[in-house]
Predict the 3D structure of the following.
Amino acid sequence: MKALPFRILLMILAGVCLPNLSSGSSEGLDPVRTLKSGGGVLMIRHANAPGSGDPANFKIGDCATQRNLDERGRAQARAIGVFLRHHGIVKVRVYSSQWCRCLETARLMNLGTVQQLPALNSFFSRPDDREPRLAALKAFLAEQPHDGRPIILITHYVTIEAMTGEGVSSGEGLVLQLNNGSPKVAGRLDFDP
């Protein structure tokens, strides 16, 4: 059997390793272009952390009491950072839920300083926190300066679904275009390596 030329092998590997880019908008908005223009927010569900919810003894700041990333999740988080840097999305503001799996996802993306934002915290097992968290997140987004830097938010399924009406898998994100009023979904980014 003849060996594949190196260039073809690289193209095959790039196709396997680069995330799936699909537009979730009926208007055909390009999610990467939206981010690069500085008018976008990328909401990412934390990378793969086996299980669902959190243990009964869950405590913020104590990762031993939480559901955490596995090796697949760590690879997903790194792939997100590689993809974004590959597309020139490097001058960003990164915010994360205070859950360890979100913070680790954000840090492994290696895009700069990660700031904790309680408005991104899960309300999966605390439904009374849903409305106050969503109101705080909407207020946070409304206050953001239009300085050309995309905003990246690492959060949970429930937060993304409540903000957009769309569900996402672990390590997947939705790009939102900030308008006057509620953010509009510009597209979906699947970072599964």
